[in-house]
């Protein structure tokens, strides 16, 4: 195969950090090439340089044998490079065709564009109805919109950043089929993912980045997932140990919980029910947007329900707010770190106060803040959870995602709750930190807390959960013991090929 | 500080365009009120008289502004405070007694508080916009003031002219100068107390923390257990009560009488003061003094240099404009490019 794009000695320095240092690799036409690395290893910066969003400080790129220096994404697209971002840039209130048109330089008339979308999407097995509102689509379907938008430009190189984080196993299969078809037609794919099994299944070559440098290249199919992870991290990983435990009395009971979503295009919860004993870990899977956020809000107390719908250590709590529930022993860690779990511009000390005030007694009787105790609590979180920060007066925004996540989870765990609810506890966190967080949750369960872990990472849930359930369009499946579950069975619990039938029915 | 300098430059250009000597105009506005051999003796106490209500109102407003609750109707709450305070005084007239003034203080605060509760309750019950409701209530308050000044509260011994009795001449209700020649009256003291209280609240108290949190990250505030509705009630209530107090101190002190045009626009100017002081209590203290200076200096410039009143108001507006513009510039970078859809 001929070399499509070669990258030689790319270097990019930001104040205080070298994001990429002398990165060199090459992609052949039709090759599916994985970029592997922990968070902060420099993958994003590298692809942003290839896509023209960031200009390298040094080094050069060659595309089709020609020097390639995209000054902006438009130039990159003109040269045949397209990118699907991890976070979608779609307008929920517009339909599919309008969203696609917005990303094009000179969109054809709507009717012709709609026909093209239908044509391309069926050709690649990604059925899409151009007339549907994006707000009504599942995450998987939204991703199809992004992919089809790229495919309409007939790219030679398609960059995909963490494309499967929002998909069910079945949807992942569909995506992989599409990618293989593209590859067979000669389109090269640069594939970024944390999910090692996927990379093993899909990719021809992997380039491994660590701290901004290329440390290794391999054929992923010939390595085990563990070997790949160890190449990424540079050390030997140990799986989390499950402390032996005896389930205690029931700590959290949810029955007939139905709540409307506070967000437009959100998912209402419908008749959710489960009960969880002290020491047990309930893993709740599901594709993003199936009610995970709403479930967390309804459990944390940010959404209210009838008193009997949620019972915390036996007390009716559905009508109580977050602080009253904290008093009863339930704490929560929402998915969105900046803006929900933590206030971005406030210091770590202030963020420790944010949810720790009640259980840690950080506020006196007259409402005055005990600043010394607050600082001590923040310092304890930083020390116990290995949060890398210059100090506790640093704004939450200044921390990397993984470090802030450790802080947020640590803040809740150190309150020694009876029940802890976490949503996406290791989202965007590097492998070592993720392992530490999972271990901390298991240890907490070992000390007799009930843990509700909502996550889209199946491997994570299988690793920590005793009981497994899935959210699908706001409904929770009957919880089952994890032992004896297969990935196939889990996929079906999560809703199978979610949204496919709908797309066909409208198509 | 840069904003003040830019205002001076732009204001100077404007004055030059009006055919006035810009240097003299700027000096008259910023320097003469404090140091002019002839006028300073009169204008220096005026500085505190004007700054007092501005600071008192702005402190209240700043709490809400920090939480993202926009009370634009302090002017109306100020008027209601004055009407209620004066009403208590006139009801007792001509009786004596130490209890009259405290009752007036209470009535003034309650009047402003009640007026602010209207937008608060409407927002909580019907999701109305408190900016609009509080602003429109200013005009209602002004009509009410006019009705009172020519109607029920008119001085029966005033020969039929609109306006109430002069409270300054009714000792139990008078809010006189505490130290002669300084302009310091109880309202100025109240403003200083408000500055200190607000500073402590924002730095040390959980309510202050919740206010900042709600303004910076509303979702994090809900996660922290802050009730948005309660915060609306507290912020609008406090700002209304402080504005009412300011109005009551004004009507019983420097103004003395409830008249149709008694309000001076303090309630609106206080919005500028709050932002000029970066919503920080100490900043507001300084901003209130600066704003009072431009008020007094502006009046001085009007009769010394015949600069039109509108030009002075434009000058004050520039101050806010430059401040906000610089704020934006220091947080964002201007790029003259089309944004990419990525």
CATH topology of chain B, what is it called? Answer: ABC transporter involved in vitamin B12 uptake, BtuC
The CATH superfamily label of the largest domain in chain A reads P-loop containing nucleotide triphosphate hydrolases
CATH architecture assignment name of the largest domain in chain A: 3-Layer(aba) Sandwich
**Segments of chain B where pLDDT lies below 50 for 5+ residues?**
none
CATH class of the largest domain in chain A: Alpha Beta
Mean pLDDT of chain B: 88
Domain count of chain A: the total is 2
Q: What summary fits the major beta sheet of chain B?
A: none
* C-alpha termini separation of chain B: 39 Å
Q: How many E-type strands of chain A? A: 21
CATH class of chain B: Mainly Alpha
Q: Helical proportion of chain A? A: 25-40%
What attributes characterize this protein structure?
heterodimer, A: 507 residues, alpha/beta, Rossmann fold, 2 domains, seven-stranded mixed sheet, six-stranded mixed sheet, 23% strand, B: 342 residues, mainly alpha, ABC transporter involved in vitamin B12 uptake, BtuC, 0% strand, globular
Describe this structure in words.
The complex is a heterodimer of chains A (507) and B (342). With 507 residues, chain A is α/β, with parallel strands linked by helices. Chain A has 2 domains: 3-233, Rossmann fold, CATH 3.40.50.300; 250-337 and 418-504, 3-Layer(aba) Sandwich (Rossmann fold). In chain A, 34% of the residues lie in helices and 23% in strands. Chain A contains 17 helices and 21 strands. In chain A, the strands form 4 sheets. In chain A, strands 13, 16, 17, 18, 19, 20 and 21 form a 7-stranded mixed beta sheet that branches. In chain A, strands 6-7-8-3-9-10 form a 6-stranded mixed beta sheet, sandwiched between helices. In chain A, strands 2-1-4-5 form a 4-stranded antiparallel beta sheet, with helices on one face. In chain A, α11 packs parallel to α13 and α13 packs parallel to α14 (431-446). Residues 496-507 of chain A have low confidence and may be disordered. With 342 residues, chain B is an all-alpha fold. Chain B has a single domain (21-306), classed as ABC transporter involved in vitamin B12 uptake, BtuC (Orthogonal Bundle), CATH 1.10.3470. Chain B contains 14 helices and no strands. Chain B has helices at residues 2-17, 22-30, 32-35, 40-67, 74-92, 100-126, 130-150, 186-204, 206-216, 218-223, 228-252, 266-276, 281-305, 309-331. The longest helix of chain B is centred in the N-terminal third of the chain and has 28 residues, at 40-67. Chain A binds chain B through residues 53, 72-74, 85, 89, 102-103, 300-302, 321-324, 326, 332, 334, 336, 339-346, 350, 353-355, 357-358, 363, 367-369, 371, and chain B through 204-207, 209, 212-213, 216-217, 219-225, 227, 340-342.
